[in-house]
Amino acid sequence: MTMPTKKGYGPFLPERRIGVLISGRGSNLQSIIDAIDCGQLAATIAVVVSNRADAAGLQRARDAGIEALHLSPRDYPDREAYDRAIAEALQRRGVNLVCLAGFMRLVGRPLLEAFPHHILNIHPSLLPSFPGLEAQRQALEYGVCVTGATVHLVTSELDGGPIILQAAVPVLPGDTVETLSARVLAEEHRLYPDAIRIVLEGLWSVEGRRFVRTVGS
Ligand code: GRF
């Protein structure tokens, strides 16, 4: 599915209700919770949804007093039905911005159509380099000197939507997947709340494949 070009504005979202989708540890979820708690991000997390019951991020949500919902793909006949169930759960809670934070599933048409231009993802590389799994390992194996993190709008193309913000991270001699991932993750935690703030402020448009901020924002 190609996304329609949207010109002139990103709608200001007065309610600013975020839904966060996770599959695992939830450290990026925590960075969003912390940014809201310290007043750096004016928003509410309405619900956290995980496809896995054992995602540690679900407990982070509960600890922060946020509804934590496990929706198992096994309870639905196919991917479309599962994505529809997620979209409905989010819409019932008044969510108007969806943030993927380590959500290890492809986002299908029902979700994309329910939140056009309003699903974000964070990825641990400087896209378009190293999309998909194990981005930090890919970067090390390729031998790049600089990698990083990217927050982008989600489209039907895996890790391929318009780029909102990026941060560069040097690859150091002797780096392992673990040491590099830790350094990238620190940047992710800084980047994601900033990108969410930019999107919620609404001064942007999508032109072709570019996320364009309105001058002055
Ligand atoms: C992060 O590296 C993120 O970029 C990627 O998955 C990881 C999730 O980590 N999409 P966490 O669950 O937020 O700690």
Short synopsis of the structure:
The chain is α/β, with parallel strands linked by helices and 217 residues long.
What layout of secondary structure does this protein have?
Elements: E1 17-22, H1 27-37, E2 44-50, H2 56-63, E3 68-70, H3 79-92, E4 97-100, H4 109-114, E5 119-123, H5 135-142, E6 146-153, E7 163-170, H6 177-201, E8 204-207, E9 210-213
Parallel strand pairs: 1-2, 1-4, 2-3, 4-5
Antiparallel strand pairs: 5-6, 6-7, 8-9
Helix pairs in contact: 1-6
The protein binds 5-O-phosphono-beta-D-ribofuranosylamine (GRF).
Brief descriptors of the model:
217 residues; alpha/beta; 7-stranded mixed β-sheet; two-stranded antiparallel sheet; 9 strands; 33% helix; disordered N terminus; binds 5-O-phosphono-beta-D-ribofuranosylamine
